[in-house]
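Hi X.,

You mentioned you wanted examples for the new student's onboarding notes, showing what a folding record looks like when two proteins sit in one file. Here is a clean example. The first protein comes first, with its sequence line followed by its structure tokens.
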Amino acid sequence: MLSFLNNKIYAVHLNYLAFAVPLFLAFMGLEYLVASKQGKTYFRFNDTVLNISVGIAERLADTFTVGLFYFVYRYLYEHYAVFNIRPSVLLWVALLLCTDFVWYWYHRLAHEVTLFWCAHVVHHQSEEFNYTVSARITVFQAFLRTGFWAVLPVIGFPPGMITSMLLVHGLYPFFIHTRTIGKLGILEYILVTPSHHRVHHASNPQYLDRNYGDVFIIWDKLFGTFTKEEEEPVYGLTKPLNSNSFLWQHFHFVLEMLYSVRHARTWRERFRIVFGKPDNVDPAARAVLEERFLIGKDTVTETPKLNNYVIWQIAVTLVLLFSFLLLEHYVPVFIQVCISMLIVCTLINCGAILEQKRWVFYLEYARFVILVSSVYYCWPQPVVLLGAVVVMAGGFYFHGALRQRYLDLVYGGIEN
């Protein structure tokens, strides 16, 4: 793309992968319309907000980690590649099969090993099943997957082939997170279909830890982990999380594992907790930790004001994320950090608002400081700092009244 300015031609380097954000949002909206037309309630407000929040965080983190992953693949390829593979039609097919095979074992071990489940559990917390659930990928999971896929450059697949394949391979799973598509005939014997993946996300006893495949279902059939969809699936964890906290969703199982390790009596038992099955984690840990870290209301009353404020925050965050990804080559590192901090604060804010936490007001101070820092970096004038000091001084002076007014506006007069 070319931009003409002052009779000179400048090359504009846009990150066109940013358009994945509005594309996926469009499919989510389409699925919502189809489900509504069918009279189905496949979407719940809190669930959808939380799913998209996790997805925003993952896309943001990808900005800083994708380059690192490519470097790892290139280093391994240059120093340890067993074969000298060159792109061809057959080798692209071979790479697709190898990628999917490695995914199967990564995914299976992510369910069977406690340490890996800590990274993957976020993907299964939703009690609904729709396209927004596909966004539930954490940066921890991205690092874990990279460790498994690191075998591909060692085999001899070039880093360029690998990253291209991972982009394509990563698109397919989005479309299998839906209840609007039934069984697909002969494709059920070859591909992972929405029906197969509904089984994987179900908490019904007969469906637990089944159908790990990502693109091809052949691995599950080969290794005995395949189950057909018959009984209506019930989605979510076997023990529901019952929290809208963005941070708690990411770290609750890590804390449960550490709690269990701390209270284990022998090193052998500790090793079994960390590297054995997630069932070895103390089932009482969740209740103890929730009482310690999730002090709050037993019931949460939704109001239009509360929901509208969350919707506007998510909408603005998505626009900011899209703009940041599209123009990332032109955004200074300091501004990148500020944008990232602002987005993370907003995601934490939305989760806290859904739980009607009173401390959410203090996040507004944090967001104000981040915004002022960004403005001052771009326009380093004393008037910026002077204005910020005046606003902050006024905020501290009228703190009590401002806080109460803020809570009333957001929660609509709910007792909080």
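Then the second protein repeats the pattern, sequence line and then tokens:
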Amino acid sequence: MHMDYYCSAKFTDLMVHVQSRLLYNCCKAYPERVDLDWLEDNPGKLFYTNTMLKDRALMLDNKSCASCHHGCYKYEQEGLPSTRQQYNNNEKITDPHAPMKLISIVLSTDCNLTCMYCSPEYSSAWQRDVNHKGDYIINGTTVKQNNNWHILWSKMKQKSRGVNSKFFGLLLRELELARDVESISVLGGEPLLNNELDQILDRLLGVKKFSIDTGLGVNDKKLEKILEKVKGKDVSFNISAEATGKIFELIRYGVSWKDFDRRVKMIEQNGNEITFACTISNLSVLGFKDFHRKYGEKYKFNINLLSVTDYMMPHVLDDASKKRFIESTKDKSNLPEFVAIRKMIEKEPSAEDRIGAGQYLEQFSSRRSVDLGFLPSNFREWCTTNP
């Protein structure tokens, strides 16, 4: 299959996983581990490791780089949309040493939510679930919830994985040296639970534009403390959600819909900008219309394609649910977020993914004693979930 392998994100974006000392040259790329001695001796080079420079050179030669296969290329080869396609623009960066523009920092996996599409890579609550109850079995195969780098992660499981103080100090130095960076995003886990967030804000608040990604799975007192610190500052909140009510509580397991909605209002009243980061899975499609009706007139929406769990991808839906979504959103069909979702659900799901969706729902809900009766019966029956 002929493809254009170039992606501008590879030349501008970096994600850093502090707890595990991993670098992702764009959010979907396979990671590499940081050599602390090398970084200490090469200040300002965090975005220019040998691996990153080689990958950019391959892209400029229109050749596939292995780190991008699992996150983007393989889905495009199957006729599915990818995150890479969202970065298509008219400007092609040709300098492998181009300045970093966007950096995302995953402080740790500390999180009290087990969102359905997440994994131990980003949630300590997920790690506890897998440790206590084992991996999921889908279509007769053990599913490693760690997904894109479970081999790396498994090697670290038995070791201490607290935030590495030396690496964190070097990272703060890199942030201060990265003068061309336009925005710093702090991710999790749940960054509002992490004390290192205060250190980053204390060092760089007012110097760089900040965004904080959160599922709002924290108590009101903790949120109030952060809001007091960032009041009147150029700090926005990217809030992870894409449904309301019981569907929300299933997808974002660990936080109630009532508490979530109240905390959104707290951020709004504090005067900080809000954007909703909506990860669209098959379950999200079932609840997105109501979510958009509630928040769509006030806030921005960023639509993210779920691309790491095949049986939860948006197109793994019964025809009746797809038709209902299309019919009920005709009045919004010109909005970018609905255009994106309509495109996502076009593909016909495989029988394996249909059965996998049902098996995953059954195992996820039984571990948490969740009654799935609120889901549409046609969807439950289609994917073999018991009504």
